[in-house]
Design brief:
The chain contains one helix and two strands; from the N terminus they run H-E-E. It has a two-stranded parallel sheet with strand order 1-2. It is α+β, with helices and mostly antiparallel strands. The two termini are 17 Å apart. The longest helix is centred in the middle third of the chain and has 11 residues, at 11-21. It has a domain at 24-48.
Length: 48
């Protein structure tokens, strides 16, 4: 598990964190927050 404080909750802020710590082939489960939705293009196994 990784955690990081970010200034603004947006997909733009989350993408570098995902790229640094999560392989695109990884199954990721999230809550229903809309900020994760744009990341599905790069993370096809992201489930909300």
């Amino acid at each position: 598990m990784y955690a990081k404080v970010i200034d603004q909750a947006s997909a733009q802020q989350l993408k570098p964190f995902f790229q640094a710590h999560i392989s695109p082939e990884t199954k990721v489960r999230t809550d229903l927050w809309k900020g994760y939705k744009p990341l599905k293009a790069d993370y096809p196994f992201l489930e909300q």
